[in-house]
Amino acid sequence: MSFDILDRFGDPQLCRNVLDTLARELDGELRFMEVCGTHTVSIFQSGLRSLLPEGIVHLSGPGCPVCVTHESEVNAFLDLAGKDGVILTTFGDLMRVPGDNGRNLKKAQADGARVRVVYSPFDTLKLARENPDDLVVFIGVGFETTAPTIAGTMKMARQEGIRNLRILCFHKTVPTALDALLSDQDIALDGFILPGHVSAVIGVEPYRFIPQTFGKSAVVAGFEPLDILEALLRMVEWRKRGEARVDNTYTRIVSEHGNSRAMDVMYEVFEPCDALWRGLGLIPGSGLEIRDGWVEFDAKREFDIVIEEGPALPGCKCGEILKGVKRPDQCPLFGKACTPANPVGPCMVSTEGSCAAYYKYKVD
Amino acid sequence: MCLAVPAEVLSIENDIAVCRVDRGQTTIRASLMLLPEPPQIGEFLIIHAGFALNILDREQAEESLRTISQDANCPLSTGTEG
Fold first, then answer.
1. CA-wise closest residue to A39 among A30, A26, A48
2. Which N-terminal residues, if any, form the signal peptide (chain B) (predicted)?
3. What would the pLDDT profile of A247-289 be if each residue is shown by its tens digit?
C-alpha cells in the first residue's frame, strides 16, 4: 500500500474527462448542496468550483459544526469560561466564534480564563489527570464523525476512574438536518453531496429517505476532486433518466451500514434529543445528549445550562447561507464588517465555513 | 472539524496505532477502540481527533477509479501527479 492510490483521485487528465462528460450530459440546471465543511473547502481549494459547467449550481449547506452551533450554545460555553475551578477544552475552531457583546474564547483566555485547545479528546484525559482539583470541561460540538470519539473518551475516563472530566454536549446528527432542509419549501435543491466521514460512521442506509420521501438524489463522496466529480456525474445522469437515488462513491471508506463499533460506542453514551441549529432553528431529534447512565460527565446538568432560542446576531445572514438560500457575498456584512480577521458570524470564523472559503478563494 | 486524514499503520501496541501521515516523518497516535476489527501493519486508517474511524479498502479504491474512468469514457491513468 502506498499513498499513490490516493493521489490518483486527483488525476488532472481524468478530472478533465469527467468535467467534459458532465458538460455533455448536463441537461438544464443542477442545484446541488454539499453538507460537509471539508467538501466546502475541497471544492474551492481544488479549483473545481470555477471549472464546473455553468449549469451546475453549488450551494454550501449546514455541514460545518462550528457554523451550526447555536448562539445560545456559544453563550453557554462563554459563560462557563472563567468560572472558578473550570478548565475549558475545545478544538481550535471554536476559539473565535463570537457570542453576544463580542465575547469569544480567545478574549476570555486573554482575560485569564483557563481555556485549552486540544487536538484530540485524549488530551482532556491528560489534563484531568494533571489537574485533579479542577473540573476539565470539553465542549462537544460536531456530527457523527466526532461524537464517537467523545463517547470513547468518556468510556476511557470511566475505566480509569477519572472523576473530574465533564462534557458540554452540543453534538448534532446529519440525516435529521437534511430532512428539515428538504421540508423547507424555500430551499430549491436537486441533490446532496453527502459527508464522507460522517457516513464512514453511520453508513448509507440513513439517507434512503431522501429519494423515497423527497424525490431528491444524494451521493456519499470522498474529498478528492474525482470523488466529487463522480458524485455530480451520477446525479446528472439520474436526473436525465428522471430518477432520484442514493449512492456511495466513497466505497474505499464507507459501507452500507457504516462502522457498527463506532455507532455502538456513540449510542451507549448518547441518546437523541431535540437540538437548536443556528439558522435552522429547533429540529426534533437532531441532537445528542448524555444518557442518564453517564450523568457524572454531563456539564449541562452540573451547571444547569439551558439552551433557548434567542435573538440572532444583527445583520448576520449565516442562517440563510447555511440553508443555501443566500450566497455569502449576498450578506451585507460580507467582506466589510465581517472578515476572517474580524468575523461577525460563524460561517466566517471556521476554516470550513462557506463565508471563509468564499473570502479566502475570492469567489466572484 | 470533521476532517479525517489517511495515515499508514507503522506499529500497534495496547490498542493504539502509531501511524505515518502523508509521506513525511510525521507520526500520530490513534486509538483503535472504534474499529470493528484491528488493522494490519501497512494498512491505511482514516483518523479523526485521535481515533481511527475506518480502514481504507485498497481494492475498493481501485474499483472506484475504474468506474470513474468508465463513466468518463477515458482509459484509466496510472499517473501519480495531482
1. A48
2. none
3. 999 999 999 999 999 999 999 999 999 999 988 899 999 999 9
* pLDDT tens column, A138-165: 999 999 999 999 999 999 999 999 999 9
Question: Which position has the grid cell 466529487?
Answer: A228
**How far are the Cα atoms of A39, A97, A350, B68 from residue A176, in angstroms, in the given order?**
19, 24, 22, 30
Of A253, A207, A193, A16, the C-alpha closest to B63 is A253
DSSP state letter for B43: -
* Nearest neighbour of B48 by CB, restricted to A21, A149, A261: A149
Radius of gyration of chain A (CA): 21
Checking if the pLDDT of A184 tops 80, the result is yes
Question: B39 in a domain, yes or no?
Answer: yes
Partner-chain residue, chosen from B4, B60, B74, that has the shortest CB–CB distance to A252: B60
B27 assigned to some structural domain: yes
Question: Would residue B48 count as lying in a domain?
Answer: yes
pLDDT value for B81: 40
Task: Quote the pTM value.
Answer: 0.92
**Quick check: B1 and A259 CB within 8 A?**
no
**Which CATH number characterizes residue B47's domain?**
2.30.30.140
ipTM attached to this prediction: 0.90
Q: Is residue B67 part of a domain?
A: no
Contacts of B43 in chain A (CB under 8 A): 1
Alpha-carbon distance of A201 to B34, in angstroms, equals 10
Which pLDDT value is given to residue A310? Answer: 77
Number of folded domains that form chain B: 1
Q: Give the per-residue pLDDT at A265.
A: 98
Helix (H) or strand (E) holding A74: helix A71-80
Q: Which range of residues forms the domain containing residue B9?
A: 5-56
Structural domains present in chain A:
1-308 (3.40.50.11740), 318-360 (no CATH)
Selected residue of A120, A144, A256 to mutate for chain B interface (largest B Cβ count, 10 A): A120
Chain B residues touching residue A155 (CB < 8 angstroms): 33
Residue B52 clears pLDDT 70, i.e. is over it? yes
